[in-house]
Amino acid sequence: MDSEYTDLFGVATTPPLPKGAKPKAPPLEKLAKLMDEASSLEARIEATEAGLARIRERLQSCTTETIDECVAIRRELIAFLETCVPEEPRKRKIREILLDTILD
Fold it and tell me: What is the DSSP letter of 10?
């Protein structure tokens, strides 16, 4: 045996790798590593989906609350308009414009 393939006690060893080269993992180790990475990614996907579901629920809740507030404010504005602007024929156009503005 060549001296570069034996250790100090004369036992055969694997040849040294060139500088900067990484040793190749056996196929089963590589497969196990890839399966672990896939499992980790699947767990991250599930956590992200759960987080998105919570965000969607919160967004829906906030949107519903905001819509309800807008409807209440518009009702108040319409009630205020009805008390401030009488339905006289000459004020009808002003009333219509204000009502359209409130509803837009």
Answer: S
Long-range Cβ contacts of 74-77 (<8 Å, 24+ apart): 74/102, 74/103, 77/102
Write down the residue that tokens 């006289």 correspond to. 88
Q: Does the CA dihedral 49-50-56-59 come out positive or negative?
A: negative
**Count of residues making up the chain:** 104
Contact yes or no for 78/102 (Cβ under 8 A): yes
Supply the Cα-derived Rg of the chain in whole angstroms.
38
Model-level pTM greater than 0.70? no
Beta-bridged to residue 6, according to DSSP, are 12
**Per-residue model confidence as pLDDT tens digits over 33-87:** 999 999 999 999 999 999 999 999 999 999 999 999 999 998 998 888 888 777 7
Q: Is the dihedral of CA 71, 77, 79, 81 positive or negative?
A: negative
Phi, psi of 6, deg, nearest 5: -125, 150
